[in-house]
Amino acid sequence: MSSTIRRHGPYLTITLLILFFFVTYLFTTPQPVQLFGTQLVQWASIVGYFAILVGTIDIVIFHIKPLRSKESGQWQYSAVLLLITAIGLVTGVTGVLSGAGINYQPFAWLYNAIYVPSNATIYAILVFYIASASYRAFRIKNAQAAFLVLVGFIIMFADIGLGYVIWPGFVPLGNWINTYPVAAAFRPIIIGSGLGVIITGLRALLGRDVYGR
Amino acid sequence: MNSIEKINKILSNRQILYLLLIAVVLGIMLHPLGIPIGIAGQTRDVYNYVDKLPQNPKILMDVHYDPAGATELQPMAGAFLRQVITKSPKIVFFTTHNVGPIMFERLKGYFPDVFSQLKYGDDYVNLGFLPLAEATFASIAKGAQEFVAKDVYGASTADMPIFKVADKAADFNVVVLITTSTDPVEYAIRQWYTAYKMPLLFMVVAVIGPSVQPFVASAQAVGMLSGQNAAAQYELLLKKPGSAVAAVDAQSGAHVLIMIYIVLGNLIYWPMRRMSKKAGGKTK
Amino acid sequence: MTAAVPIWDMFGLWIGAALTVWLFSFAFKDNALYKLAEHLFVGIAAAYSFTIAIDGILRTGIAPVQQGNILRIFALILGCFFFAKYFGKYSWIARFGPAFVIGVGLGISVTTAPEGFVLAQVKSSMLPLWTGDLLQSLTNILMTFIVLGGLTYFMFTFVPGIRGVTKVTKKTPASHLYAVLVKIGIYGMMIGFGALFASTIVSRVAYLIGRLTDLIASPEASIVATILVIAAIAYAYQHEKKTAVGKIEQKESKKNP
Known about the structure:
The complex is a heterotrimer.
Chain A: H1 2-26, H2 31-68, H3 75-98, H4 105-124, H5 126-137, H6 143-159, H7 161-166, H8 170-179, H9 181-205
Helix pairs in contact in A: 2-3, 3-4, 6-8
Chain B: H1 3-12, H2 14-30, H3 41-51, E1 58-64, H4 67-84, E2 90-95, H5 100-110, H6 112-115, E3 124-129, H7 134-142, H8 144-147, H9 162-165, E4 174-179, H10 182-196, E5 200-204, H11 209-217, E6 223-226, H12 227-237, H13 243-279
Parallel strand pairs in B: 1-2, 1-4, 2-3, 4-5, 5-6
Helix pairs in contact in B: 1-13, 2-13, 4-12, 7-10, 12-13
Chain C: H1 4-24, H2 32-66, H3 72-80, H4 96-125, H5 134-154, E1 162-163, E2 167-168, H6 173-217, H7 219-255
Helix pairs in contact in C: 1-2, 1-7, 2-3, 5-6
């Protein structure tokens, strides 16, 4: 029995939950059933916090290994990471338990000094790669590529003030392109993703989740 | 090596491009050009929609952005708040981005003129970080106060007057999603618009603008502001230019540099391809 | 006591500027200061995420239980299942936590996806091809064909008159129509991707502008950090050269012992 629960329990859980929400959505159900559905939804949201806790623990475990084995070229950085994590955890949890939350002064200083600028810079580096990719990858080899670059340039001119100076018509033209053809171009993708959600749900419902087994 | 190959070698050097990009953007930021900005129809539609909101609108706002996205989204959020504050709104803030609480505090710091007119607990509340999951959006729609017992500052939500008028989906006049990713958009479309027909207003970074456009075109959203240029246009419509307007010149400079590189890249590509064909080799 | 606060703020600005410059240096060359900045970021990100999650659990899990909503205990129990993965013998229990989240997520999304994603989009694609206004009519015709073309390209992958991948068995009017729709779909996609490319540049440049704004606000810190990182990059290049020379010498000494 225990091996059955271990192997099939999670899939059965998924199936039952999907069935439950199908029934409550398609049929009129008594008030206690609807309230139970609301509870389930709230629980699922709260459970998400624990996934974040597990993520942090995994990072710490991952960096303890090179520290233990004194892995050349890495253990010093892992030590720094673990040290700053420890300081952050102590100040953060102290702040939360004291009621100040994330506004606890030492913790706020840490994330404003380290986290905020680093987080922003990690994404800002991408500008360099898109610039160099634009030079390397945008080769007009056929009519389709030429069309792509043409539309890209029109939207770029519409987006920048200089385009408005060169020809004020770029702004309404760019607005028209974004509002109509672009919306039409991405519509099949949205329809496809909606069908994908439906298929994934039906697959999970029928126990044919190919990623699980 | 002939001249075409020499030019290609210089242009292919990524470090030169990166330094040029930094120099152009930094140079223009230090010496602004004052380039005029045209107003797009989509931005004007959002402005007009907010203008037509009734008095004392109940607004639900998801502050879902990180410090990187703040450059584009914070000016938009601030401009929206500046426009709507004239109507004495009730605003329930929350965030599904883990850095959202920091961003909310920064938003408060950058727009004190707005928050000084609002009383916490009566006119606005911050429910803090809630995990990014479809279940979160569904829970908020079913009742924000019942779902979140304590706000981000540790105060009990049960005693807050704002939840007497702004709690469940049907209470809100508009839901504003300020986001850097398409996940909250999809969850909101399914759990708020489809389930409850709540009006959705999207404020997004430019990179996800095209992906969100179909929802605006199909009237599942009442409008969208996409990117720093839309933020600048919105600031101009409000006659309160801010950081987005200040950034437009630098955006122009960077765009022009990238366009020049694309054009030069293609101008060099064809002669080099012909040369390599003559030499019998493969083109790079 | 009051004098200490500005010093800490200034120290924070210096650290922020240094981390910004050191992280940017990765675009030029991987170096020790970049690695240091990266590990500091990951460490503080982990600590921050943990703190915010604990805060959330207290506010939405434990506080309601204290206020009388006993059922929330089940959410806390389900959440604790995640930790079972660290106890080898009981690690199978950990799968129930994600299973619950996935089950609820799929349940509420599958019920609303048909209407929200499929029907709404299909409905708004059914546009009148003649509205009385020429520009609007042309726009509607263009949109309709782009949607049809895109759907044909992505989804309707059975090709009339074609067997397998390329073997043309019979050219029929249906296969001609299919080819035309696919062509329109591809050009429609090019419009979408051209707009996406332009939008991506706006976003990325905006990120750069945000960082440079902060660097301009702390010029001394930025200059000192830049000098340090130039030294680190120079050291990285030299180290790479030495390692390469060392490897060549090793190979040669093996050939000629």
